[in-house]
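Input set for joint prediction.
Command: fold jointly, output tokens.
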Amino acid sequence: MYNWEQVRDKVNAFVDNLKFEREPLELYKPIRYTLAQSGKRVRPVLCLMAYNLYKDTIDEALYPAVAMETYHNYTLIHDDVMDRADIRRGKPTVCAKWGDTTAILSGDTMLLLAYEFLAANAPADKLPQMLALFTETAKEVSDGQQYDLDFEKRSDVTEQEYMEMIRLKTSVLIAASLKMGGLVAGASESDLENLYAYGETMGLAFQLQDDLLDVYGDVEIFGKKIGGDIRCNKKTFLLIKTMELASPAQLAEINGWISNPACDDDAKVAYFTSLYTSLGVKDICEKRICELFAKCDAFIDNLSVSPERKANLKAFADSLLNRNL
Amino acid sequence: MYNWEQVRDKVNAFVDNLKFEREPLELYKPIRYTLAQSGKRVRPVLCLMAYNLYKDTIDEALYPAVAMETYHNYTLIHDDVMDRADIRRGKPTVCAKWGDTTAILSGDTMLLLAYEFLAANAPADKLPQMLALFTETAKEVSDGQQYDLDFEKRSDVTEQEYMEMIRLKTSVLIAASLKMGGLVAGASESDLENLYAYGETMGLAFQLQDDLLDVYGDVEIFGKKIGGDIRCNKKTFLLIKTMELASPAQLAEINGWISNPACDDDAKVAYFTSLYTSLGVKDICEKRICELFAKCDAFIDNLSVSPERKANLKAFADSLLNRNL
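tokens >
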């Protein structure tokens, strides 16, 4: 049994060992660059920890685990093109560094590499299920990104719609990573469902945490400019909840900020930050995150594995909770 | 045994029956739009005709065949974003009609659908090989597109480099479509190699034909503006060969046209068209196409199937030769 730091070390070593020296270099350089960024590697670690619930070694599941990470990184490259983002993890995005064309094409190749890794040493009897899980998940992630883009043009997004969008855009991949690990390890159908539900719930918590960090986080740790969501009028949980709770006078003021592209951005961030706090939306969001993490525990409890193995997985979730609040 | 018109009818009916009614509609509408365009469906027809060499019915191979077509259409959507193309098959491209963001994301989902179709009813014992063929081919197509983009910035592209680029960008998918059909049907390793070589050679012929049609084609049938390659200084077989054969004086004149973005585009097209003809490059290209199609026949002759079945496959290649010259 491995603890999550050991698992992450294994993932890092495995990823470092992928050379991507294939020609044309212009295509593979951005792939190396993206995968080398020191992300938290949440998805492959979860995949391997789920596998490790049932098996004592984890090397056999490194390829599918890294498939999930490669897939995730491809979505970031393409999302950054669509969102016109310049900075990611404190560094220039692929589209900012090499241009949109390279970002589109390198991203496409990364998605192909994800499939290649997934199939690399998959047990023949599990491959169809692994593929079905992977492809359906990836389709849902695309759906989520489309909803996210649609929401930019709408002013009546409900909390429910928002939660469904982040479930698709963020949670299903976390869920599928855990389920993939269990699937490759031969876990029971019931355990696979619990692993999926665990990841789905944890993914929602992560995303709400991200919304919060965008406003209240530490720029050094967060790796992005604080208030980015506020600056671009992103409909986050905080904004949607605020518009639900605001008085008519506050609502008019909010719409004034949102509809004025020439406004002072720093003043706008300060205004919304103070409003989120005073209306109690920050507290609501924090409470929601805690509730979601508590629900996660119940899904782990349902798993048919020893308490030590469950504790090991829980320790990783704890390490991600309130990571820099 | 089916003739190619019957095979294409089956493909068309199958594609028409794919509804893509999944939400969000904004994501699936461009996919329906793209797949509904009346392309020649060369790849799925070849896949099914290869399958039909070994099996009497073809319904079992419709999914992998349509996977190849879906994949091909995804590359067109993304290539049009990268090439800033507005018109494709006589209609607005997805990026022109819905914008780059939709084109990127719908294209991504189409690639996922291609994998879904590929795995849909694949025989479990063939799936790993099918996946490996598909993914390696798609990686090569991306490599080819990258070389194509690189060549735009270079003035010293050789004929050999050009042929390798079009092999990757165009031929390997034709080759893989044929091999896929044979693979699903259980063809021998030697037949699979011949099917692949046949497609690879035919793909080169197609691309040279496309280069020729871009200059000498009929706009009604070609579906694109004539001289598009000349207008954007695309290094086609014709231009590369012309620069090889041109006198120093002609070369200076050619470079004058190429380096002058403010030149009269129609005059430029007229100049290059007349030069290609007078230098004999049009003839060289036509001769090369004929040679390639002749080589194709040899690969078909090597196949271990009856002469009638071979004749059936040859008839399709003939229908594509000189399609509107």
